[in-house]
Amino acid sequence: MSLATHDINEVEKRMRASLDALKREFSGLRTGRASANLLDPVQVMVYGSRMPLNQVATVSVPEPRMISVQVWDRSNVTAVDKGIREANLGLNPIMDGQILRLPIPSLTADRRQELVKLAHKYAEQSKVAVRNVRREAMDLLKKLEKDGKMSQDDHRGHSEKVQELTDRIIKEVDSTLVTKEAEIQKV
């Protein structure tokens, strides 16, 4: 029985991992407001290799519609500028010594709709991942019952717990989506 009890914690951990991945995806979606997370995917070619931007510069948000990138080594400013432009984030850095300023342009209505669709796609992928974890857990419970390591009543009880957990995580995915959608639509 301890195997099945321990299993529910592992199931929850795996489901939460897909929710966390969704939140990371959402943090990269541009909403018309500046966010330091917006530059997370940027890679910069410095010292003969590709490095994440946060390893060569400090990213800050001095104003709601401006991102500031303080490059630590003056010789890397051009490489950081190029890395930001190549990331296709729709941002045009303005060089000011060792600081790059990135004004965040306001979103058009069409772009907002595209971002909402993308948010829905990310949320659906997260739900599919949660359902896959649920299916694997249910298959394991069936196998344990079939092998005689779990009674039918225990199987039913554990199955209900897995289903309740699935419903709760899917509800969290939906509420995260609603919040992100409102943030994108906000002018």
| Class from helix and strand fractions | alpha+beta
Measured between the Cα atoms of the first and last residue, the distance is 53 Å
Largest sheet: 4 strands, antiparallel
Q: Please tell me the total number of domains.
A: 2
Strands of the largest sheet, in order across it?
3-4-6-5
What is Rg?
22 Å
Mean pLDDT figure: 87
| Residue fraction in strands | 15-25%
In helices, the fraction of residues equals 55-70%
* Strand count: 6
CATH topology-level name of the largest domain: Topoisomerase I, Chain A, domain 4
Low-confidence segments: none
- Treating each run of at least 4 consecutive H or I residues as one helix, how many helices? 4
Q: Supply the CATH architecture of the largest domain.
A: Orthogonal Bundle
CATH superfamily of the largest domain: Ribosome-recycling factor
CATH C-level class of the largest domain is Mainly Alpha
Query: Shape from CA axes?
Result: elongated
The H-and-E topology, N to C, reads as: HEEEEHEEHH
Layout of helices and strands:
Elements: H1 2-27, E1 43-46, E2 49-52, E3 57-63, E4 66-71, H2 77-86, E5 94-96, E6 99-103, H3 109-146, H4 152-185
Antiparallel strand pairs: 1-2, 3-4, 4-6, 5-6
Helix pairs in contact: 1-3, 1-4, 3-4
Structural write-up:
The chain is of the alpha+beta class. It folds into 2 domains: 2-28 and 109-185, Ribosome-recycling factor (Topoisomerase I, Chain A, domain 4); 36-103, Gyrase A, domain 2. It is built from 4 helices and 6 strands, in the order αββββαββαα. It has helices at 2-27, 77-86, 109-146, 152-185, and strands at 43-46, 49-52, 57-63, 66-71, 94-96, 99-103. The protein has a 4-stranded antiparallel β-sheet, covered by helices on one side. The longest helix has 38 residues, at 109-146. The mean pLDDT is 87. Belongs to the RRF family.
